[in-house]
């Protein structure tokens, strides 16, 4: 467990790796993002993606899973109130192996809640070729 | 199906409603965000949330589901490359009924891909009391 005083800008965390298969991509999409390029190999070919691709929200959810299981363990849990920016530069494809690299950017004690505070991070999810997804 | 010329700033879309129960909250969290305040009623009481709350990524994924099922139907699908900002002002609780309200902010033809373009929207997910989550 890490407390506010344990965090400092520049610290880096690297997660474990996680492999994503077609079944997981389709199962997530069926529940949350039922569009042909996320649910059906055949139908995906004629789309923008040119083949099956994970929902961007699946990529985001897997990023959270990898973060929660990493050594980035703030006491009280990982609770986000905002993201300044999110980018999906590249789709996740069946068979991709993802990991997350995070860097602490800012540490700020709360002005209203003594003993509490927030940590601002940049997290990048990379595939097996080191490309951000 | 809506094409680029069908979109204009100021257009509004309202989704259907969707009720979230404790089982769905725990199932999502077990897979993607296994922290006590998302997975266990009892353990959640002593946390920041004071009781079971949905993962923010679950809220985001449900928002996508509601959008995909709404009348906001761009030809080619809803494909996002970035979000300028995301906020989670309030947790989703078991029993909450969500809907999404979206407004078109900007419509821009692609400079590199003739016949294509992008639509920028603001989407807000509201609970049964009209509060943004």
Report on the structure:
2 copies of one chain form a homodimer. Chain A is an alpha+beta fold and 133 residues long. Chain A has 4 helices and 6 strands; from the N terminus they run ββααααββββ. Chain A has helices at residues 22-32, 36-39, 41-44, 56-68, and strands spanning 12-14, 18-19, 82-83, 86-87, 97-109, 117-126. In chain A, strands 1, 2, 5 and 6 form a 4-stranded antiparallel beta sheet that branches. Chain A starts with 11 loop residues before the first strand and ends in a 7-residue tail after the last strand. The A-B interface holds A 28, 31-37, 47-49, 55-57, 60-62, 64-65, 68-69, 76-89 and B 28, 31-37, 47-49, 55-58, 60-62, 64-65, 68-69, 76-89.
Précis, in short:
2 copies of one chain form a homodimer. Chain A is of the alpha+beta class.
Comma- or semicolon-separated keywords:
homodimer; 133 residues; alpha+beta; 4-stranded antiparallel beta sheet; 4 helices; elongated
Distance between the termini of chain A: 29 Å
Helix content of chain A: 10-25%
Mean pLDDT of chain A: 97
Give helix and strand order of chain A, one letter per element, not per position. EEHHHHEEEE
Q: Helical stretch count of chain A? A: 4
Rg of chain A (C-alpha, Å): 17 Å
Of all chain pairs, the largest interface belongs to:
A-B, 35 and 36 residues
The coarse silhouette of chain A is elongated
Indicate the structural class of chain A: alpha+beta
DSSP strand (E) fraction of chain A?
Answer: 15-25%
Quaternary structure annotation: homodimer
**Biggest sheet of chain A: strands, sense, closure?**
4 strands, antiparallel
The count of β-strands of chain A is: 6
Low-confidence stretches of chain A: none
């Amino acid at each position: 467990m890490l407390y506010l005083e344990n965090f400092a800008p520049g610290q880096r965390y690297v997660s474990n790796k996680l492999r994503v298969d077609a079944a997981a991509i389709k199962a997530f999409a069926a529940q949350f993002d039922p569009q042909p390029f996320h649910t059906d190999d055949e139908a995906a070919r004629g789309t923008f993606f040119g083949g099956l691709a994970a929902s961007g929200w699946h990529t985001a959810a897997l990023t959270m899973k990898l973060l929660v299981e990493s050594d980035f363990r703030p006491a009280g849990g990982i609770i986000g109130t905002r993201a300044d920016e999110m980018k999906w530069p590249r789709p996740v494809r069946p068979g991709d192996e993802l990991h997350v690299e995070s860097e602490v950017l800012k540490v700020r004690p709360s002005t209203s809640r003594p003993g509490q505070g927030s940590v601002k991070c940049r997290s990048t999810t990379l595939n097996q070729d080191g490309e951000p997804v």
